[in-house]
Amino acid sequence: MRRADLGAPVDGYFRKQAAAKRAILDELRAAVDRVGPDAAGAIKWGIPFYTIGGHMFCAMAGHAAHVNLILPGPPGTYPDPGGVLEGGGKTGKHLKVRPGETIPAAQVKAWLEIAATRAREKTSPRMG
Protein backbone atom coordinates (compact mmCIF):
# COMPACT_ATOMS: atom_id res chain seq x y z
CA MET A 1 0.00 0.00 0.00
CA ARG A 2 1.37 3.40 -1.00
CA ARG A 3 1.93 5.87 1.86
CA ALA A 4 -0.21 8.99 1.62
CA ASP A 5 2.79 11.21 2.40
CA LEU A 6 5.12 9.77 -0.28
CA GLY A 7 6.73 12.67 -2.12
CA ALA A 8 5.35 15.33 0.23
CA PRO A 9 7.53 18.36 1.08
CA VAL A 10 9.79 17.85 4.11
CA ASP A 11 8.73 21.05 5.93
CA GLY A 12 5.66 19.43 7.48
CA TYR A 13 7.78 16.64 8.95
CA PHE A 14 10.09 19.08 10.68
CA ARG A 15 7.20 21.19 12.02
CA LYS A 16 5.62 18.14 13.68
CA GLN A 17 8.71 17.22 15.74
CA ALA A 18 9.03 17.93 19.48
CA ALA A 19 11.26 20.90 20.32
CA ALA A 20 14.29 18.87 21.48
CA LYS A 21 14.32 16.70 18.35
CA ARG A 22 13.43 19.64 16.15
CA ALA A 23 16.58 21.48 17.25
CA ILE A 24 18.72 18.51 16.19
CA LEU A 25 16.85 18.07 12.92
CA ASP A 26 17.12 21.79 12.13
CA GLU A 27 20.89 21.72 12.68
CA LEU A 28 21.29 18.64 10.50
CA ARG A 29 19.01 20.13 7.85
CA ALA A 30 21.12 23.30 7.76
CA ALA A 31 24.24 21.16 7.20
CA VAL A 32 22.47 19.28 4.39
CA ASP A 33 21.44 22.59 2.79
CA ARG A 34 25.01 23.95 2.98
CA VAL A 35 26.67 20.87 1.51
CA GLY A 36 23.92 19.98 -0.94
CA PRO A 37 22.24 23.15 -2.18
CA ASP A 38 21.32 21.14 -5.28
CA ALA A 39 19.59 18.44 -3.22
CA ALA A 40 15.86 17.81 -3.43
CA GLY A 41 14.02 16.80 -0.28
CA ALA A 42 10.80 14.78 -0.10
CA ILE A 43 9.12 12.36 2.26
CA LYS A 44 9.83 8.69 1.58
CA TRP A 45 8.95 5.91 4.03
CA GLY A 46 7.61 8.62 6.35
CA ILE A 47 10.91 10.52 6.75
CA PRO A 48 12.81 13.25 4.88
CA PHE A 49 14.99 11.84 2.10
CA TYR A 50 17.36 14.03 0.12
CA THR A 51 18.51 13.21 -3.38
CA ILE A 52 20.91 14.78 -5.85
CA GLY A 53 20.17 14.05 -9.48
CA GLY A 54 17.72 11.38 -8.35
CA HIS A 55 20.34 9.53 -6.28
CA MET A 56 20.20 9.24 -2.51
CA PHE A 57 22.24 11.83 -0.67
CA CYS A 58 21.02 11.34 2.92
CA ALA A 59 17.94 11.03 5.09
CA MET A 60 16.88 12.06 8.59
CA ALA A 61 14.53 10.42 11.05
CA GLY A 62 13.18 11.56 14.39
CA HIS A 63 12.60 8.66 16.77
CA ALA A 64 11.22 8.63 20.32
CA ALA A 65 14.55 9.32 22.03
CA HIS A 66 16.93 10.32 19.22
CA VAL A 67 17.41 11.55 15.68
CA ASN A 68 19.23 9.64 12.95
CA LEU A 69 21.23 11.09 10.08
CA ILE A 70 21.26 8.31 7.50
CA LEU A 71 24.17 8.09 5.07
CA PRO A 72 24.08 5.71 2.08
CA GLY A 73 26.99 3.62 0.93
CA PRO A 74 28.78 0.34 1.38
CA PRO A 75 30.96 -0.40 4.41
CA GLY A 76 34.06 1.81 4.50
CA THR A 77 32.46 4.73 2.66
CA TYR A 78 32.65 7.10 5.64
CA PRO A 79 35.77 7.48 7.78
CA ASP A 80 34.73 7.20 11.42
CA PRO A 81 37.77 7.50 13.69
CA GLY A 82 35.53 8.21 16.71
CA GLY A 83 33.37 5.17 16.05
CA VAL A 84 30.10 7.11 16.27
CA LEU A 85 28.43 5.79 13.12
CA GLU A 86 26.10 2.87 13.67
CA GLY A 87 24.68 0.16 11.46
CA GLY A 88 26.24 -2.98 10.12
CA GLY A 89 24.31 -3.15 6.88
CA LYS A 90 25.68 -3.19 3.35
CA THR A 91 23.81 -0.05 2.28
CA GLY A 92 24.75 2.63 4.78
CA LYS A 93 25.41 3.94 8.25
CA HIS A 94 23.69 6.37 10.56
CA LEU A 95 24.60 8.90 13.21
CA LYS A 96 22.34 8.76 16.26
CA VAL A 97 21.98 12.07 18.14
CA ARG A 98 20.07 12.37 21.39
CA PRO A 99 18.69 15.63 22.81
CA GLY A 100 21.44 17.38 24.77
CA GLU A 101 24.26 15.80 22.76
CA THR A 102 26.53 17.88 20.59
CA ILE A 103 26.44 17.15 16.89
CA PRO A 104 29.98 16.55 15.56
CA ALA A 105 29.56 19.33 12.98
CA ALA A 106 32.92 18.99 11.22
CA GLN A 107 32.52 15.23 10.89
CA VAL A 108 28.91 15.55 9.70
CA LYS A 109 30.01 18.07 7.07
CA ALA A 110 32.75 15.68 5.87
CA TRP A 111 30.32 12.75 5.69
CA LEU A 112 27.74 14.81 3.84
CA GLU A 113 30.41 15.95 1.36
CA ILE A 114 31.25 12.30 0.66
CA ALA A 115 27.56 11.43 0.25
CA ALA A 116 26.97 14.41 -2.06
CA THR A 117 29.99 13.54 -4.19
CA ARG A 118 28.81 9.94 -4.52
CA ALA A 119 25.33 11.07 -5.61
CA ARG A 120 26.73 13.59 -8.09
CA GLU A 121 29.10 11.00 -9.58
CA LYS A 122 26.14 8.69 -10.21
CA THR A 123 24.37 11.58 -11.96
CA SER A 124 27.25 12.71 -14.18
CA PRO A 125 27.79 10.94 -17.49
CA ARG A 126 30.94 8.86 -17.46
CA MET A 127 33.72 9.79 -19.83
CA GLY A 128 35.79 7.24 -21.64
Report on the structure:
It is a single chain. This protein has 128 residues and is α+β, with helices and mostly antiparallel strands. The protein has one domain: Aspartate Aminotransferase, domain 1. Helices cover 32% and strands 26% of the residues. The chain has helices spanning 11-15, 19-35, 105-123; strands at 40-44, 47-52, 55-62, 67-72, 85-86, 92-97. Strands 1-2-3-4-6-5 form a 6-stranded antiparallel β-sheet. A hairpin with a 5-residue loop joins β5 and β6 (92-97). α2 (19-35) crosses α3. The longest helix has 19 residues, at 105-123. It is globular and about 40 Å long. The mean pLDDT is 92.
Widest sheet, order of strands: 1-2-3-4-6-5
β content, as a range? 25-35%
Q: Whole-number average pLDDT?
A: 92
Summed up, the domain count is 1
CATH architecture: Alpha-Beta Complex
CATH topology: Aspartate Aminotransferase, domain 1
Q: Characterize the main sheet.
A: 6 strands, antiparallel
End-to-end Cα distance, whole Å, is 42 Å
Helix count, DSSP H or I runs of 4 or more residues: 3
